[in-house]
């Protein structure tokens, strides 16, 4: 293998043979975790969603990897950075893609969204016990669903290709309630820190603010929702996000 063609928090991406890429997970990820991603990816691909085909699980130098179809394209985030004047069209496209996913029932075999969120909240040790208990009580009183939810839907997980947008990184996919998935995206877009080496100046903050605002408004036009229900889902997702060892812990705790 040569140098990785992309590097993320969970894995490095390498070019592979036969039109594939290798997603080589960091050492902390077990074979069982990678097998679970492979199973979920096959379920999503079989549903007809615009996703890469998935190959076999492999082991390289003691690390576990997963082969995927190689997709020629750039992420929406990279395209936005190169063409910031297209912010509004990208934000609307993101909302339309997510709404399209939510129009589909989840394939049998996906994890249940409420159970995954509850497990994450209980595991968010950086949050005081009282906050976690209140978030769990809030979750218990929110509706369930059986729609296809991505669980990590943001501009860096959408590839813009000649064949149209392709959605990647389905490890957090669940059967659940669409508004919960939108609230998760809202937390990711609004609070996540930029990639290493990107200066978090006023221009980046302004772009993020308007992208989030336009994305959310457009999704709401496509699928109207009550603001108070969305706010409750956003709090629950903020609590769950605290289990992921993220740099924006302080901002999420302040929101809670």
Give the structure's gist in a few sentences.
The protein has 256 residues and is of the alpha+beta class.
**CATH homologous superfamily caption of the largest domain:** Aminoglycoside phosphotransferase (APH), C-terminal lobe
Low-confidence blocks of residues: none
Total domains:
2
Give the beta-strand count: 10
Provide key terms for this protein:
Aminoglycoside 3'-phosphotransferase, Chain: A, domain 2; 3-stranded antiparallel beta sheet; Phosphorylase Kinase, domain 1; 9 helices; 256 residues; 46% helix; 2 domains
Would you kindly provide a written description of the structure presented here, covering whatever features stand out?
This protein is α+β, with helices and mostly antiparallel strands and 256 residues long. It has helices at 31-46, 76-82, 87-102, 113-122, 129-140, 178-191, 202-222, 227-241, 249-255; strands at residues 6-7, 11-15, 20-25, 54-60, 63-69, 73-75, 147-149, 158-161, 164-167, 174-176. It has two domains: 6-69, Phosphorylase Kinase, domain 1, CATH 3.30.200; 73-255, Aminoglycoside phosphotransferase (APH), C-terminal lobe (Aminoglycoside 3'-phosphotransferase, Chain: A, domain 2). Helices cover 46% and strands 17% of the residues. The strands form three sheets. Strands 1-2-3-5-4 form a five-stranded antiparallel beta sheet, with helices on one face. Strands 6-8-9 form a three-stranded antiparallel beta sheet. The radius of gyration is 18 Å and the shape is globular. The chain starts with 5 loop residues before the first strand and ends with a helix. The model has no long low-confidence stretch (mean pLDDT 93).
């Amino acid at each position: 293998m040569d140098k990785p063609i992309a590097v993320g928090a969970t894995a490095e991406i390498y070019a592979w043979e036969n039109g594939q890429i290798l997603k080589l997970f960091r050492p902390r990820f077990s074979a069982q975790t990678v097998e679970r991603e492979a199973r979920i990816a096959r379920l999503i691909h079989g549903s007809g969603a615009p996703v890469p085909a998935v190959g076999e699980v492999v082991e390289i130098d003691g690390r576990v990897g997963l082969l995927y179809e190689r997709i020629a394209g750039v992420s929406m985030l990279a395209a936005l950075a190169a063409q910031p004047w297209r912010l509004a069209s990208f934000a609307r496209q993101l909302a339309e893609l997510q709404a399209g996913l939510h129009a589909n029932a989840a394939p049998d075999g996906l994890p249940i969204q409420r159970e995954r969120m509850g497990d994450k909240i209980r595991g968010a040790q950086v949050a005081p016990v009282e906050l976690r208990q209140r978030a769990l009580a809030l979750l218990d009183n929110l509706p369930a669903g059986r729609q296809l939810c991505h669980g990590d839907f943001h501009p860096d997980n959408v590839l813009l290709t000649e064949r149209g947008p392709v959605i990647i990184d389905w490890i957090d996919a669940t059967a659940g309630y669409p508004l919960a998935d939108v609230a998760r995206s809202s937390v990711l877009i609004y609070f996540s820190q930029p990639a290493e080496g990107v200066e978090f100046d006023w221009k980046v903050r302004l772009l993020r603010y308007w992208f989030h605002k336009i994305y959310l408004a457009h999704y709401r036009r496509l699928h109207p929702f009550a603001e108070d229900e969305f706010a409750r889902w956003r709090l629950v997702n903020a609590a769950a996000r605290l289990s992921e060892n993220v740099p924006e812990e302080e901002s999420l705790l302040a929101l809670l």
